[in-house]
């Protein structure tokens, strides 16, 4: 009997200190616990860091507690801890992160091997954790759109992603986006089951 489990990790800068669009993954994950009817987030130690975790029978939701650009070592340690407790063949890793190329709140399932497009959090995770070592485990990304400023220069983009979120933006990320994140997780599971059964 195939019993899939998901480790879903959001990337961002630590909340509540950095309440910016760059932490869109954290906002979406906090709303996702409610959508999935999971326990509220509580602080536990995982990957040798204190972090916010919501554990359900199928989904373990984890907010990465590190700064975005150095997320990789933490994600790798948490994955390895879970892979020791659960057969990796029934465990999937999903990274939830912000995406400049999509409008605010638009959610997309993204292939693991797709280019990070300059996203330093994704680059850090890929550098620290190789999917090649876990060929039976589906690794995927869920991108949460944050829109982008008119100007494309690095300084303008940096100011945009690091500015404090407005209450409207936060509502879109915490209340609307999580419904779509849950749908993408269902899609991912359906694809995975088809491969296992096929």
From TrEMBL:
Enumerate the SUPFAM superfamilies for this protein: Peptidyl-tRNA hydrolase-like (SSF53178)
Provide the alphabetized UniProt keywords: Hydrolase, RNA-binding, tRNA-binding
Please state the Enzyme Commission number of this protein: 3.1.1.29
Q: Entry's PROSITE patterns?
A: PEPT_TRNA_HYDROL_2
Task: State the InterPro entries in the record.
Answer: Pept_tRNA_hydro, Pept_tRNA_hydro_CS, Pept_tRNA_hydro_sf
Q: What class of enzyme is it?
A: hydrolase
Q: GO: which molecular function terms?
A: peptidyl-tRNA hydrolase activity; tRNA binding
Recorded superkingdom: Eukaryota
PANTHER family cross-referenced by the UniProt entry: PEPTIDYL-TRNA HYDROLASE (PTHR17224)
Q: Which family does it belong to?
A: Belongs to the PTH family.
**Per its record, how is this protein called by name?**
peptidyl-tRNA hydrolase
Species name: Purpureocillium takamizusanense
């Amino acid at each position: 009997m195939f019993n899939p489990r998901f480790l879903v990790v959001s990337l961002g800068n630590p909340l509540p200190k950095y309440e910016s669009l760059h932490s869109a993954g954290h906002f979406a994950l906090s709303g996702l616990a409610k959508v999935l009817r999971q326990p509220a987030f509580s602080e536990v130690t995982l990957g040798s860091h204190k972090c916010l975790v919501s554990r359900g029978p199928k989904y373990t939701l984890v907010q990465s507690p590190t700064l975005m650009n150095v997320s990789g070592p933490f994600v790798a340690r948490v994955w390895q801890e879970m892979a020791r407790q659960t057969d990796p063949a029934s465990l999937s890793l999903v990274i939830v992160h912000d995406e400049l190329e999509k409008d605010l709140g638009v959610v997309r399932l993204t292939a693991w091997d797709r280019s990070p497009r300059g996203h330093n959090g994704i680059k850090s995770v890929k550098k620290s954790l190789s999917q090649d070592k876990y060929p039976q485990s589906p690794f995927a990304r869920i991108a949460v759109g944050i829109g982008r400023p008119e100007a494309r220069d690095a300084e303008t983009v940096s100011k945009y992603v690091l500015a404090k979120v407005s209450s409207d933006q936060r509502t879109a990320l915490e209340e609307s986006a999580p419904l779509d994140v849950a749908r993408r997780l269902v899609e991912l599971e359906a694809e995975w089951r088809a491969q296992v059964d096929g």
